[in-house]
Amino acid sequence: MNRYLCFLLLYVCCIQLACAQATGISGHIYDQESGKPVSGVSISIKGSTRGTVSGPDGYFELRSSGAATLVISLVGYARLEKEVSSGEILKIYLQPAIEELNQVVISASRVEENIMRSPVSIEKMDARTIQQTPSANFYDGLVNMKSLDMVTSSLTYKQINTRGFNTTGNSRFLQLVDGVDNQPSGLGFAMGNLFGPHDIDVESAELIPGAASALYGPIAFNGMLNTSTKNPFEYQGLSAQTKFGMNHIGDGTDLGAKPLYDLAVRYAKAFNDRLAFKLNASYLKGTDWYANDYTDIDPNTPAAKRGPQNPGKNQLNIYGDEVAQTLPDIGRVARTGYEEKDLATYGVYSLKLNGALHYRITSKLELIYQGNYNQGTAQYTGSNRFVINDFKFVQQRLELTGSNFYLRAYTNHEYSTNSYNTRALGQQINRTWVKDLNGNTVAPEKADATWFERYAAAYKGIVTGVTPQDHNMARSFADQGRILPGSEAYDAARERLIRTRGLAGAGILSQCSLRHIEGMYDFSPVFKIINFQVGGNYRKYFLNTGGTLFDDKDKKLTNEEYGVFAQASRSFWKNHLKLTLSGRYDKNENFTGRFTPRASAVFSPSEDHHFRASYQTGFRNPTIGDQYIKLNVGPIIILGGAPVNSQGLNAYENSVTIASFSAFANAFGSDMQKGTPFPQAVANNKDKLVKSNVPYIKSEKVKSYEIGYKGLISKKVLFDVNYYFSRYTDFMINTVVARAKSNILLADGSVNPAAAAELLGADRQLFQLYTNAADKVSIQGVSAGITYSMPGNYKISSNATYIDFNIRNADPNNIPAFNTPNWKTNVVFGNSRLTDKLGFNVAWHWQSAFDWYGTFTEMLPGKVQAYNLVDAQVSYRIPSMKTIVKLGGSNIGNRYIVQAYGSPAVGGLYYISLNFDQLFR
């Protein structure tokens, strides 16, 4: 943000501070049944941006220049509106109630509405639930929401998804924090909560499972998570949390248990009802989960012959052994790899710094500037295991919010200069030390071939002193000179290759960014009889990978997109029926515009029972990588599907399918072995070639139908159930083609002999192209939840989700991996006030087994076993110190579970924390 704009803003604020005068409204808030003070109650002036929160003794204070209507709410109590006069001192008693009855959500319709009357399925985690979660942090606690799946790649990186087609890097799911997209633009997906807010600054998190593109655009294809942080006007004072934990207990290694530290501080101050600020700082440090599954997954070895004695073994979390050859008269042999623990960076951390300045221009108009600096290390399982190392993510946000509109602008900048690919690192270290048969170290480009020559010579008895026909002896001879982990030579090679980017090393460079501006205006006060909102956004990406990933060396690569939406709703029959229509148009510079409508109806025969039905549509534009990757990896060029990205390469326009090329090459080779002259062998078989017809990449699409019910039974039991059916088309896929320099087809449509001949020689170029499949698939699912508020402040909630994938007649190679269990269930039982000071919470999660398909294992399936785990915590309040002491654990049974094949096994994490809340308020 321009420095002069900052100075001007501060100058205006100071003037307002000098001029602002107001009297106050104050009082205490009590529980109607017990008569005890209630803390954490939200008190706001209706129709304005002013608000506060009650302290530990139930006391609150709020400035007001005259009579006002107070809106008083807290989860677990009935919402209350009260007319008050300026200067009045109040005693307010709240009536306990089912907490979901009072919850207000914003994400479902972009305007405030009661969660019971939401037009689509929505889940909410509020500040009180966050405080009581037994999980290590609020983000981990999201797993207890129905419909949500969570995958662990690292201690500091967990990815969430809803309704199928799960991945470890999910570009089909939108994550917003205070309305800001939390994705680093080069990665193309949010890194879980690695770059999100700390628990002490989170007010709520709202989850929409399923397509939300009609209001939020292309990224919200599978759903969205909207996290809101605490406003400094309402949550003032000093808050601090210190957490000490342990993991790796009984992990099967001799490395022992490892400590975890999580420290966080928040300070917020409102100078008056005009100006407020907040500052956040947090630091987490620990030892990452180990990926140490050494299962042999070599696809070229029969399953019965795989295992430790297989000379061609490709072990799951050993890297470098993917390099293999079939040696004549010997069989398949793989190079000796390195374990992930010797390649990765298991000392992970997360640093988060955040500051925000809020200025209320009037009682209905607020200006916000916010800056976030995040830095951290995590492991990510993609096509390889990547170390997102010392990754920096910087955000700035400027927002003007009124009672019926907002205007928001923000920027995201990523700085990845020390990240690397562990699999590539293992392969490259293996190319630094290989010696030829004369004992001379060879160049890296000759290392693999030389190693296999040594192996073959030793196995065949050509090497003196080496027992022939012995794979172990042959490997020992080929590995002579191998540098070992822990040695100076190994450490030097490792560091050098991490710093080396491109095909000769393992380093990854990305300094991409995006700029985004959006706004919305609510015309409802103008139209009166109908609620009507319009909005839109504009976004521009700026790519910078130094030519290591995109074709952006010495050139500026950008991408622009925009979207506009409108929504109208109206209630009929004395508010018993609410109809809502939404529609959005989005346009990316590389793709045709896309319209996504949504229609919904909510029927409420009484205040306790609500039936809903909706038709939703969604789409997903290709990520920046899908569009612009241009990576020459030697035998093949990986080419993104944006038309501008392939100009001059003729890959989409003049190539043949890889299947037809293989058939042609095999038949040609057979003829040549029979003595057929080259030109004749080409002519005999050229018609086996089939010109490819690969379209440029376009958006994925989904249409979804949903019905549901949410209601209160006997004033004690809340029940929520929904059923949905979705159809998906145009899934993005990769396909391989072979290009010739000459035209593939002649004018008469026959195959050009010259092109066929070129495909057999050096003029052939293979491409991996990004495109879409024509196949159609569908899913259907049911989720249900029940919450029972029991006597004595006990509460139990349970939910279950079933999802079914119907591949129909589709080619499995054309469909993304579903990677979702058919069944999952959660049960949460607790009492936040077992006594005045003591509380507890226990959560149980179970999910069924399923096959995981991923690019890490070349789309070969790996079983994710069924598992169940228990999280638990007990908390003790010290009111005089405004402190809560919590003792708890995630996965307290310490079952080591894998949530994505190839990712690490995750065990128990046990912790004790002290939370000091709103000191010096």
UniProtKB/TrEMBL annotation:
One protein family per Pfam: CarbopepD_reg_2
Keyword flag Membrane: yes
TonB-dependent receptor plug domain segment(s): 116-223
Signal peptide interval: 1-20
Domain TonB-dependent receptor-like beta-barrel, first and last residues per copy: 376-891
Organism of origin: Dyadobacter sediminis
An example Gene Ontology molecular-function term: siderophore uptake transmembrane transporter activity
Claim: Transport is one of the keywords in the record: yes
Membrane-spanning segments: none
GO cellular component: cell outer membrane
Family according to the record: Belongs to the TonB-dependent receptor family.
BP-aspect Gene Ontology terms: siderophore transmembrane transport
Keywords: Cell outer membrane, Membrane, Receptor, Signal, TonB box, Transmembrane, Transmembrane beta strand, Transport
Subcellular location per the Swiss-Prot or TrEMBL entry: Cell outer membrane
Protein name, entry field: TonB-dependent receptor
